[in-house]
Structure formats: structure tokens, C-alpha cells
Amino acid sequence: MRLTVLSTLFLATTSLGAGSALAAGDLNLICAADVVICEQMKSDFEKDHDIKVNMVRMSSGEAYAKIRAEARNPKTDLWWAGTGDPHLQAASEGLTEEYKSPMLEQLQDWAKNQAESSGFRTVGVYAGALGWGYNTDIFKQKGYKEPVCWADLLAPELKGEIQIANPNSSGTAYTALASLVQIMGEDKAFEYLKALNANVSQYTKSGSAPVKAAARGETGLGIVFMHDAVAQTAEGFPVKSIAPCEGTGYEIGSMSIVKGARNMENAKTWYDWSLKPEVQSRMKDAKSFQLPSNKSAEIPKEAPRFEDIKLIDYDFKTYGDPEKRKALLERWDREIGAVAN
Questions:
Q1: What is the pLDDT of residues 86-104, one digit of tens each?
Q2: Fewer CB within 10 Å, N side or C side of the chain?
Q3: What's the predicted TM-score (pTM) here?
């Protein structure tokens, strides 16, 4: 009898301990930012918390696809960073959890608007304008004119000198696609993209890869978020960033808790922590030069400021809608991807 009671107590204690360890000790995270800031965020969080972060780095489109595929049995707790459109898409499909952080009132209006428009299923963590970075050495050596407008990227001499990511995998490239549609109208935007295709040497998987290739001299120019181009300049590469003269779109890098997350409390802990001003002020140390969402966070001196850029009134609601996104990507696959160099 005594052995039975002891065994029962032992099993109960073991079960409680295992459950507590699971709840207190783990966080399964997708990071859709550059790998350097992903690693820094993981390291900083683990120093401050008794929680082990199991992190996977992937592009925004890939992150959305993974979370959607695992909807019935979520393996991810939290999705941090990456462009806001796929976060909004996940929110509209009920793939993410409603959560109002106590940090919400400290955030910039654009970050709060992102939360409100999604029913508080995502929130803005940083922002950045779309543009490009070009290798000044290559352009000087080859006598190319500085491209300051979208139209300039169609110059025949730039054949094979441009890289941009594939919008199916990259949130950056989807933002570019949606921005051009809003600037030009859909049919004219696709005519532009067909003409641009003649100058594109590669459609990369990652959104920041094109400007990294330009920095290394593998291509002349990469269409990216401007802060990614600035990061290469800060590393000492001959890269100049440009905000297009006709106007450009921008991203609200976002964060979402996955619906049915196994480590829900730990996800909320990261969520609140990552919105703190001191955490966002550290992003520049990883050469991440976006505009932080907390009003009190330090804005890196290198960060491209919205007030210096001709921004369009980017329609996040329309272009974060699953049907609109699907239709645009299918048309891109038919008219651009199928004939890509």
C-alpha cells in the first residue's frame, strides 16, 4: 500500500515537473529577419529569461506557409519579424492568437494601427521603406547612370545587373510587387515587371540577398528594403541606397503568436519583451537599421527616415488579404516566374 502511494506521488510529481518545465523552459520561434539580428535577439532573450529558444530563420512567405501547414498541430509558438502582409494574412485566416500587450500604448501609431487592423492578432515591431542599393564601384567602372526612379531600372545597359527576391518566398519582394501595383495599376505594373525581367539575373529566396550580392560585386543592384542596403554600407561595402522618385511602399515588420501555441505564456513573454525600448534600441548593434516601433527606442542614425522618402499610402488591409495575395502571386508565376531568366 505504502509503495503504491509513493509511486502515485512520484508519478504526480514527475508529471507536474515535466509540465512545468515545458511551460517555463521552451519557446519555438520563427524569426523572419536577417540572421544576425535573429541570433542577437535569441541570445539577449535567453540571458534575461530561463527559457530556451528553439529558433528557425526563414523568409516571411516561408514562415506563413509553415504556420498554415501546421495549423491543426502547431509546432511554432511565435513568429517574430518579417513583412506585415503575410502576418495580416495569417491573422485573417485565424492562424494567430489575439493578444493585447501591456506595451501597446508605448508604440508608434503605425504599429498600433497594425494591431488594430488585425484584431490584435499581430503588431508592428519595426518599419522600413522599399528601395534599392547599388554597388557604386561597379556603376562607376561600367559608366552606368545612377538609377533614382523605378523607370531607370529598365535601362538596357543594366541587363543582368539586377537581383530581386521571389515574392512567393520573400515578403520584401511581395511588398515590391504590391507597391508597384498601387503606384502604376495592376496591368501596367506587370508590364513593368516583364520589362524589368530582362535586367534581372536572379530571383533570390531571401529578401535581403540581392543587396548582399551587390555588396560583394556579384551583381550591380539589389531591390530591397533600404535599411538592408544601409546595413551593407555600414559594413564598409560600396553600396548606396536609393528611395525611388515615383514613390515607394514600406513594410511594417510584425510579430504574431500562433494560435494553439504549446508555450503560450513564453510566447507572450517574448512578445512583451521585444516591444521594450531597450530591446529595440539594441537592434542597431546587429546592423539592423529599421525604424523601431517603441516611441522611446533609439532610432539608429543610419536609419532611412520616412520624412525623407516619398511614401505611398500603402494599403496593408487590401494587400494582406489572402485572396488578393494569392491572385497577385499566381499572376506573377504565370507572367514573370514562368519566363524568368
A1: 999 999 999 999 999 999 9
A2: N
A3: 0.86
